[in-house]
## 1
Amino acid sequence: MGVLGSYRREDLPHDLVAGLVLGIVTIPQAIAYAFLAGLPAQAGLYACLAPMVIYAALGSSKQLVVGPVAIAALMVAAAVGEHAAAYSDQYLAIVTVLSLQVGILLWVLRAMQLGGIVNLLSHPVISGFVNAAAILIIVSQLGAFTGIDVPTENGAAAQLAALAGSLGTLDGAALALGLASLVVLILVARYAPAIVRAKSTDHPIARAGPVLVAVVATAAVVVMGLDVETVGFVPAGLPVVTIPWVDPALWWDLAPNALLIGLVAYVESYTVGTTLAARRKERLDSHRELVALGAANIGAAFSGAYPVAGSFTRSSVNVAAGGRTPVSVLSCAAVILVTLLWLTPAFEHLPHAALAAIVIASVWGLIDFRAIREHWRFYRPDVVTHFATLAGVLLAGVEAGLVLGVSVSVVQFMRGSSRPHIAVVGRLGDSTHFRNVERYEVRTWPHLVAARVDESLYFANANQVEGRLWALCGEGRAETQHLVLVMTAVNFIDTTGLEMLHRLNDRLDRAGVALHLCEAKGPVRDQLAHIAPADWLTGDVFGTTDEAFNALT
Amino acid sequence: MGVLGSYRREDLPHDLVAGLVLGIVTIPQAIAYAFLAGLPAQAGLYACLAPMVIYAALGSSKQLVVGPVAIAALMVAAAVGEHAAAYSDQYLAIVTVLSLQVGILLWVLRAMQLGGIVNLLSHPVISGFVNAAAILIIVSQLGAFTGIDVPTENGAAAQLAALAGSLGTLDGAALALGLASLVVLILVARYAPAIVRAKSTDHPIARAGPVLVAVVATAAVVVMGLDVETVGFVPAGLPVVTIPWVDPALWWDLAPNALLIGLVAYVESYTVGTTLAARRKERLDSHRELVALGAANIGAAFSGAYPVAGSFTRSSVNVAAGGRTPVSVLSCAAVILVTLLWLTPAFEHLPHAALAAIVIASVWGLIDFRAIREHWRFYRPDVVTHFATLAGVLLAGVEAGLVLGVSVSVVQFMRGSSRPHIAVVGRLGDSTHFRNVERYEVRTWPHLVAARVDESLYFANANQVEGRLWALCGEGRAETQHLVLVMTAVNFIDTTGLEMLHRLNDRLDRAGVALHLCEAKGPVRDQLAHIAPADWLTGDVFGTTDEAFNALT
């Protein structure tokens, strides 16, 4: 406990206040996300005990709050919904297995140094995924929000269709409660900081909406005797330590889900943690984060909770409320503990419609399409990746969408590098600089073609490059006598690329054109040293383009 | 028919002779490969009629012989064996569906300009696949070769285990016939050209072994009354035009098999065709080849044959026997036609053991591990790809192995580009050239770090590159004041890479280090123009490294 050993006394009051505020903000969110995950209310609160404390002890971020989050809840519902009915005992058992798997997989990634796999979740995949997940979550809450009783469907369109088909069962009281809650949440978020004359819109009062809504909606149900669906009985007491139930076939089935949930949870936590750390000029240790988040999830598995991640909302509240060290998170856990021991009866009449409004208001802020216009101008393939992920998640579900997004980004990368940019270069005046003939006034010679291939020579582009270089030499029918391959951007050559060079060399040779190489970088020069180009290349290997032009013009 | 319109009379005798020789070589091979594919003898001969003639009419190679080949036969057996019993009517029906799908998919690839997908079958994938397929084919023939009756198993190990378990049923007569056939095949291939005083070992007499073996083995069975498995009754006459039987679920199941068979068939045909064309300084048109091979396979579907490809053996015989135009292939088809009409009774007593020997001798020559040592020195990841493909095919089957090989090569490529080579460069004397400080005696300045990242800045490497550049600046604690990013090898920046540059810029800024860019190539300069680096970059964008060093030292 290095954190506690060096704890400064003056931080304590700040941490205690922050912990209390954080606890109050956390409780309604935790219950709401539990229902989103298809779990009873207490499972959400359990996710704020062991996992939150374990991360506080092991993590490298001092302010990150780990616990239930909306996107992980959605992914849990999608993964476990296939195997059991929501709210059933079997469902809960499968969820604990899933939490254990998420934790173990994060540890395995750390042990095998495979943490880099999260880099496959590129910027556009993440943003497309978050947008779609937020939409999907909102759609999933419309049933509770309107009192319409529909089963959960995979995909937003199917869910909306199911809702539309049951419109007749709409419950006016639920809808009224839901709408009122939503209005309160929006008003509090927007105007509360101004009313208390807070200096910043980040003031914790902006997050007071859910608590206010929970209290007022519960009071409304009790006082007005409304007949709407409510949370019902929540057992008091601590989570019983559960041993995740093991069925090898189920483990195998759940492993891909666990991997995706683990990766998303890690990316979410790491991103939130890095953002917070940057403000304090601190750095997160990515390895330690994998271990800490893995441990937090294993803690979730043994305490009847569901997979956890770093929460952006609650971490922001922690910072804004003055939390300075992980002690604020420990104080928050104490608040949750008190709630679980003595306050659970207070949730009995908390209506589902209000919880749905809390979820909808929370994830509404995640939706962000503003960056896309910039992506369109800067790197268009990323727009395709964004919308592919978005469409995949909305139409085929969270996991299929995520896999589709990663596949599309890899395919686009491969496709791009399989059709590389090739520039014919000429000498810039009398300088030793060489530039693209299409962009600069440069000097060229008709018997010499110098082509810069802007990509490594490898299997996906070898045929393309061969065909285009051959075309640049007039397919052997022009007055070209020398083709100089400028390799500034060639980072490696694989055996398919080497075979292509041999073939091109022979073909050019028959057409009376000599093939020269230049500007090979260190790693490529090491490769060339193994294949004795002097023995088969019709031309020479020059150090620089300048040397090549000096020798050949 | 441009080919026939411009036909030169003096080519006719050469083409007729080549066609006759080709026909004689083809017949035993076609029957042997039919059994390898799990089909009756006549299906092999049918594959030499419509498909061969259609390719001769449409293809861009004048000498390529399209028809039954060993590897496609193996892939057919693997694909269809899951759905029906070999030699059954249903099996044949499924094979015709598969042929149709192969043809249609090749056309679709052409129509959608997706022919480039074959580039995924890199050099090491192909060589590993061919080696493994040859071994698998040899193992698959050991049953017929020894007279042991075993079912076909998926994977070489399983097949060998099944053989070992049935060793007791070994048939001495079959084994003797098989061994004798193999000895004859080897002797003919090795010494026949010398005996007839041929100028080259490519002389068609070297390919006379199979015919000799077929005749002698049949005679042995008839004269000595050997009780071994033989071809049996082969119906005389032309193939009946069949309409491939359609069951949507089956089409869907077979589609991935058809795609893989189509790709392998195309790569095989194109490679053989290109090799032949190069000798005559001709070129193949890859688009026309896709169409012609697709048409040949559709022809196979409607004439009761199985998927076809260009045969290296028979194309070589065609060339060596003097074939000059596709008319030699048409003559060969005439020989097959005559055989089908009047000579089928001759095959009744042709023993399976001799056919197995013919297959084993044919594919033995495909096994080639010599290139691997060179790959090891030139580009090691290709050795991994080769053996991954080989092991995959031998242990999990042809298709799983092929998919594994492609996956391994893509993963290795992504992995390589996710951990790019980064060189710190310095000025070479007083020149305008800059080189890696670890490889050259160059001038450096303690307040200036110039780093050349040898890869595009994109999602898979953004975090890596950020961490390493930050480390090069002493993590902000060194005397570095300027970091110059030399982008000669940066071919594009995606939005994840751009975000990384923003983050790195801010981080360096807080540490008092300015970030500069230089040597951006045309396409990257176009990208940078959209994001106004002057507005946020703490340093400057220089044209060349020279300019950057001049300004900063």
## 2
Amino acid sequence: MSSVFHGAITVSIFGQSHAPGIGVVVDGLPAGEKIDLDELQAFLTRRAPGTGSWSTPRKEADAPEILSGLADGVTCGAPLAAVIRNTNTRSKDYSNLRDIPRPGHADFTAQLKYGGWQDVAGGGHFSGRLTAPLCIAGGICKQILARRGITVGAHIAGIGGILDTAYDPVNVTAEDLLLTSKKRFPVLDDAAGEKMQAAIEQARSELDSLGGLIECGVTGLPVGLGDPMLDGMENRMARLVFAIPAVKGVEFGAGFAVAEMRGSENNDPFYYDGDTVKTRTNHAGGILGGITNGMPLVFRAAVKPTPSIARVQDSVSLSQGVDTKLEIHGRHDPCIVPRAVPCVEAAAAIAVYDALLSQQAIQQKEK
Amino acid sequence: MSSVFHGAITVSIFGQSHAPGIGVVVDGLPAGEKIDLDELQAFLTRRAPGTGSWSTPRKEADAPEILSGLADGVTCGAPLAAVIRNTNTRSKDYSNLRDIPRPGHADFTAQLKYGGWQDVAGGGHFSGRLTAPLCIAGGICKQILARRGITVGAHIAGIGGILDTAYDPVNVTAEDLLLTSKKRFPVLDDAAGEKMQAAIEQARSELDSLGGLIECGVTGLPVGLGDPMLDGMENRMARLVFAIPAVKGVEFGAGFAVAEMRGSENNDPFYYDGDTVKTRTNHAGGILGGITNGMPLVFRAAVKPTPSIARVQDSVSLSQGVDTKLEIHGRHDPCIVPRAVPCVEAAAAIAVYDALLSQQAIQQKEK
Amino acid sequence: MSSVFHGAITVSIFGQSHAPGIGVVVDGLPAGEKIDLDELQAFLTRRAPGTGSWSTPRKEADAPEILSGLADGVTCGAPLAAVIRNTNTRSKDYSNLRDIPRPGHADFTAQLKYGGWQDVAGGGHFSGRLTAPLCIAGGICKQILARRGITVGAHIAGIGGILDTAYDPVNVTAEDLLLTSKKRFPVLDDAAGEKMQAAIEQARSELDSLGGLIECGVTGLPVGLGDPMLDGMENRMARLVFAIPAVKGVEFGAGFAVAEMRGSENNDPFYYDGDTVKTRTNHAGGILGGITNGMPLVFRAAVKPTPSIARVQDSVSLSQGVDTKLEIHGRHDPCIVPRAVPCVEAAAAIAVYDALLSQQAIQQKEK
Amino acid sequence: MSSVFHGAITVSIFGQSHAPGIGVVVDGLPAGEKIDLDELQAFLTRRAPGTGSWSTPRKEADAPEILSGLADGVTCGAPLAAVIRNTNTRSKDYSNLRDIPRPGHADFTAQLKYGGWQDVAGGGHFSGRLTAPLCIAGGICKQILARRGITVGAHIAGIGGILDTAYDPVNVTAEDLLLTSKKRFPVLDDAAGEKMQAAIEQARSELDSLGGLIECGVTGLPVGLGDPMLDGMENRMARLVFAIPAVKGVEFGAGFAVAEMRGSENNDPFYYDGDTVKTRTNHAGGILGGITNGMPLVFRAAVKPTPSIARVQDSVSLSQGVDTKLEIHGRHDPCIVPRAVPCVEAAAAIAVYDALLSQQAIQQKEK
């Protein structure tokens, strides 16, 4: 077990940063779902390195080839496999990474876990590049969900202490969630976005990097997705979102703020909006008892600052058993948060679609 | 899928608040592990309702009967099953819950998911009472981990804005983690604890409830537990911790604070402490690339305020399709955070032990 | 992993022959299914030891207590847990089994696998008694399937070379499958049954035991259950049927006879029977490409003779490292085949119901 | 769930006969295992169509490209992905298969399961071609097992009623198991093999096909692999072997013959061979209570005759709702048994290696 999600659908991710390829197999997709490959490519492009100051100039085509699972562009019931070739790999010597682990990276833990056999080039299987196959799987789920009226969207909620406008947890619409999908810098408030970009540029110029916050929303959910205890929507979502390497925290609805709230504040009162039961507030983030309640599902993920910074850092030489200094060369994103936005959407889409399929399996009889 | 954790060990939790019993089956425990039932009982007593002002006076014996899995008090390789009888159930009429869902509870979502067939008495399978079997499984894992030098502990990090002393993420010891295991009110700083209890009493007197924060630490971990992407320690831990009904957020190490940090701050520099590689800070919470790095694993969980409050609340009548008022009778914990502390330990212990067993399976050859 | 089936439903079996109890947790049952406990008891009685010459006189009440999962006799969406108390346990000394393993039993393999910690009393978790919880889970699935028009039945196909009439693989009806459910000795041809019983009595009088063959049929199946490759109906069914300790072979449709057939014989020609596509023969046993084709699903399981025989047998003393003789005392079924018939039905019912739930999850769009 | 095996290792198979590619992802392989790609190619060549009269002349290169999981030819801990390009696809019109299903094929069941969206070209995901990725995964497991002294081998046990010499279930050696790995026609008795080939040629000339029997053996197994009930070696093995499309029966040790045996015959007496406990006979096929006992593991699989025969057959037109005749064009193996031999080895190797890794996870303490 490691890079496999095994539920109603199975998502098996493979690849290393500098291996011949990376990709994904998605098993269990229903037959008959048209997959728009242009739309999928557009989604992948959102996580691709861009021209902005915040991203690395390595140009990844990231054009997946669908090896199987489609017939005439429609899912055929067979597992869908997609592969992205690693073309822009550099042949430089990475063996140093076996000796002097980069702070904040998996170099050290991988070295000990895999006994020195891990593929260190470009971070190997731990590279952020592995979120591309996650986005393939998630992008496909997003398309299928959209046809069922379920919309998944996300935006940068904050970078370096500069905050974007938050989604309205009660009234956020599908249109709101789609706002950032076309933006080069995915914020709701472009003025705040300008400040964030300036902060990123500032950090870069100081050979440093910035972390941030991503907020994700899902609308159009039926009541009843998710299961008690181990398979609640929070559990499912968290498991998927933590698959994005830099995420260090996940919170739903009011999240950590509940720690300072009273029940009378936090409880979301029910009311009828026409024939539909809604809640006047949405501190629950659309989830009660692990199960969707029909309100927008809203959560946030904390993304750590890129650990690859150009400053000289303290590390150790594992071969010599002594403390040493490390200087990381090459160019790295001073802030991966913008590129992580579609990754969070992808993780959410997989979690939601899997829960939807599971729910169809265990349909109860009407009373 | 719902109340099952299926990894190297399988934990299957069952029961409803007012059914004949609740319990758990743990499959996959290695043979030859002595289980100290008195110690297990002492652990369970930590989550039992006490005499404090913060907890409900229902006296749950919570004495599990081990139906199988032990021979002469030692695991025998067969699945371990434990059951707790529900003796103190009240025969009052709960049918109102099918009609007027309690805000903040699963009444509404369960009603729609299960088509009205759910067991509403006492919250049914969604009751906090179901954390007792989680604690049985976790308490057993804790004992086995302790014999391997791995200690799991937790404390109330905050209630109603009053904060306890935090664990030192770098130097926290097993002794520190055990400090709260004997306390009636599990905080490190008893003076802060007094204030928290006063705040709880205050909330209770105002027919209200309080949420809080729980911090958990694990020491003695080898380097190398956890796997990339979907089965990192964050993913595993989050999936287990969100099994506790009231948890709305989970963060590791610096957690959400990383969103405002720079890489130069957040990166934990490596150094040699004798023959051991350590990090000078521990913003990573002991996890790099999803894999333990030998530093203390530290995380926090946000617990929402008890939704059952005595105030009149707004809700709906599902049968009549109109808005209505709801007044919840009976006595409820005005703050479940103290009792949730051992539950978080249990969740963490299961996640860690499962990762440990998985790691033994996939031992790499030494280079 | 061991005694857990983890699919759309999860079945977790626990217990040892002489532990306080045995039982099962079934997670994932849809809410709203009435479970007739009398009918379940009647089903369990079919595997209980009877008065016939072929079965041991130990009187097992085998009356399961449903601890959870039902509300007013109807599934409520929570995991269903059932336990059977082991009342008729004998306190005799079983420690000999750790030293001198019984041929044909798991004594030797359990001793080495579990390092001597296994529960040897009465065979521990390897006892045939553990098929009782399998029958609880299967009996519940049978009831739900019956309401969907799907019938599962089985009969003794042969014992000691004496054959029963086989099901007509093309025209077998639900009524045919139910014929043996009321019989004390579950054969279609009672005359053959008499001969089988005489053969069993003969074997018993010679301190020996007999094996046999069980044939199982399922009617009323929709087209489309099962999945390609790893989750075909054969794979699913075989995994469940081999859970019955004495089964050493499973074959579907023409089974091993296909090895000597030609394609022109084995292929089942399609034809229209009214609006329904059927096959004129049914060598496929109702399964093509792992997927049900709407014809009766038919398979057979080979059951080995009871290994516990009263004759002196050759074995070893593990403590002394020498060959030795073993004489097994106590009374044992000279033939477990009759009691294994409902177990095979139970295994089949679980496999079919799980496939049915999975299929509902992955419903394709109509073309 | 469908084409995924999810245990200590996860094997996810993808592809359709005429899609761009077929392949497999194997997740969970320990790091540090050298994979000999030439040896893997040689293994795959054994299932490739040959020059014999029994096989189709389509020349599949079947040269897998390893996309990930290796670094310098050694497993690196990341998932191993391999893909085989489908180059020799023919662009002929397969749409007829949606209308007139071939008897004995999955055309009909796939049509109804997938609502007409399935990829019919060349059988799509149901093609025997999908056993190539199974052989990649199995070939890798075989290499790793061989380094641990565990040998997997198989041979044609019979075709069209002509039998090969059987393995000696007690004394079969690794050398015996390797005998057929170099043979073009994998039998032990070449004279019998000549007769089988003649029978195949005869069947072909009569526009017909033949089924057969494959026997597989595994030597060098430690005592203790496999688990009780649902995860016994029989369950695990059967689940993998039934992944080979044409298999309709699996039996272990004496198999179906146990149905006519007495306990005194079938029980395998223990004895000491030096310091090792062995059994004088091996009717158990090396498995007691689902767990390996150290004797050779022996099983047989029944393979149905190729359903694609050139004779005119009865079928139906689904579009017109009438009975019709079908004549299958193209060349097809008149007997797939020879090519299925390495597939059975592959299935067995995956099952054994997965059980070995699981066993390492759950190591008991010594008494």
## 3
Amino acid sequence: MSRNEIAAVNRQFEEAARKGDLDRLASLYTVDAMALPPDAPVARGREDIKRMWGSIAQQIGLKDVRLDTLDLEEAGDTACEVGEATLTLSSGTAVVKFVVVWKKVDGQWRLHRDIWNTKAA
Amino acid sequence: MSRNEIAAVNRQFEEAARKGDLDRLASLYTVDAMALPPDAPVARGREDIKRMWGSIAQQIGLKDVRLDTLDLEEAGDTACEVGEATLTLSSGTAVVKFVVVWKKVDGQWRLHRDIWNTKAA
């Protein structure tokens, strides 16, 4: 159940990233979410996370994202996902590893903590 | 309660890192833990995580670690920590951001998911 619901939000995330819809992307996070991109400070809350994604998308020329869940553990209204994201960039393809802590708020799963790093040097 | 217990394990982590005690360090993780170091694949389980820390410690000349908790949310037998680690290296100092998902196993808090990345470019 939760597994399917979280997968559905990941598909929404991919679609928003592909379309460059930063408002939609930010809305998939909790209002008090924290995102931790490499080489940058922590982004807190939807406005900050929206700015972060705008900046990242522009910087790397983000065209497409595919999210693959490697592991998902649920505990009540929270869940912890470990996965890989394959990014299509203007310069080619990059793969990053991530941990997302999900939180169910008002019946909807949202990204609550989001951190990633590069897979290979 | 949990907050203090987790802080105590962080102090044990710092001590093990300072002493280069890889067995102790690995024992602070759950048996099915996953660690996601930058520029490398996922390490799974204590043996793999022990190897990972041995490799990292040697590579960067790790002398000391200080862990600072920025945020800690608890949910039953799991907890999610966002923090910063200040590393003393042979070449100077580095600061990384991290997310640790903690799990209470047999009455003891252990690192269950551990991922970090650099703070500034």
## 4
Amino acid sequence: MTTSEPTLSPADVRALCRSGQLVGQTAGMARGHVQANLMMVPREHAFDFLLFCQRNPKPCPLVEVLEAGVVEPRCAPGADLRTDLPGYRVYEYGKLVAEVADIRDYWREDMVSFLLGCSFSFEQALMAGGIALRHVSQGRNVAMYKTTIPCAEAGVFRSNMVVSMRPIKSADVAAAVSISGRYPGVHGAPVHIGHPEAIGIADLGKPDFGDPVDLLDDELPVFWACGVTPQYAAELSEIAFCICHAPGKMLVTDFTID
Amino acid sequence: MTTSEPTLSPADVRALCRSGQLVGQTAGMARGHVQANLMMVPREHAFDFLLFCQRNPKPCPLVEVLEAGVVEPRCAPGADLRTDLPGYRVYEYGKLVAEVADIRDYWREDMVSFLLGCSFSFEQALMAGGIALRHVSQGRNVAMYKTTIPCAEAGVFRSNMVVSMRPIKSADVAAAVSISGRYPGVHGAPVHIGHPEAIGIADLGKPDFGDPVDLLDDELPVFWACGVTPQYAAELSEIAFCICHAPGKMLVTDFTID
């Protein structure tokens, strides 16, 4: 994908985070580059968490996994995962205990970092394919819901799938499936189309995460597996300690979308 | 894929292994079903090994990973991985210490089992596509070679890639690439075609594993990533203990090739 306007490079975005100048969302930044969800867990839980991702590739598409104590990923040479995202959330025993812009004070050498594909990537492909995305045009976060779709369990990690919902014109649904299906590394094709109650969503107006969005008469609600799932699984597991990115505040990698 | 002759079911094959009646290779058995390489490592090395597979999907395509101590895989309900393969190899500190038909005497509750895709599956697809495979028609094991192609390292595991070589008529090479490329879960498209010396193979007549095979004037040597790679990496790592299947003696799963 290309863009006609000048844009910050991924390294530029990361440097702005590191210096504390960028603390907001990364949506639309360094267009054409893969953005990634971050999850850090202690080494004792790393095998179980990697297995959870391997068994649930649609909600948990792995971009990269780092050895314990390593903070410079291959997908972002020169980066430091402790400072180069705009914001982080710190959990203890499943409870949010801090939201910070820098985690050097929380860092432990036994932490293992997981980077997971983020839907910002396939949204660019959908828009390039002429499919309007209302939450983007309205500058809102996408609507996300807990469902009754079970994930495969792995050790201490078990949860149902979290999905994101985008209203798509009926005439565009097939194209939206085809286009997103070309990106298995960022959730791929939808997991459900059209009947929220069939996957345990009682009220589209009340998302569990993100912002609600209007659904018009000529549109269907289309549901994709969501990268919040692994965070939700970590929360439910009530492991003693973990750190993840704050919503919408992703790692911008050097990888290009293709 | 279908076959016109009656064939043992995967459960039949596993039962014959368990009772000690089948101790030979599984090539061609329970046709149409996925066969898998087995690797068992102690829990302390399981994260590193899973990471090695995740970083090197062509030689190490994961079919399934089991939690520590679990011996019944989802891909073979009712099976016991300690008895249901025809043969096993036991390694200590990188040295082969036993080759046995049953590993119950060696089993430890901290062992984690990895099942990896095996080329028997795409060979069936190649043959169904009209591509002759000389080692199959000659009843030999495929020729395998250590190369200079580096794998991505993960923790204690590092090695170069092991490849299998099949002589393919020049006119069929493109078809062989297309057909095998449809099976990313069992090594996918070739990693190299035509120049063995470019990947560090000095003499095609002297494979590092398996049997040599003739290369005719109208053929090219075609190289695929090989499932022996993870065993080779485990051997090189000199970890204190690991168990794998004996060459050609696979787990026959209930999964179908498609």
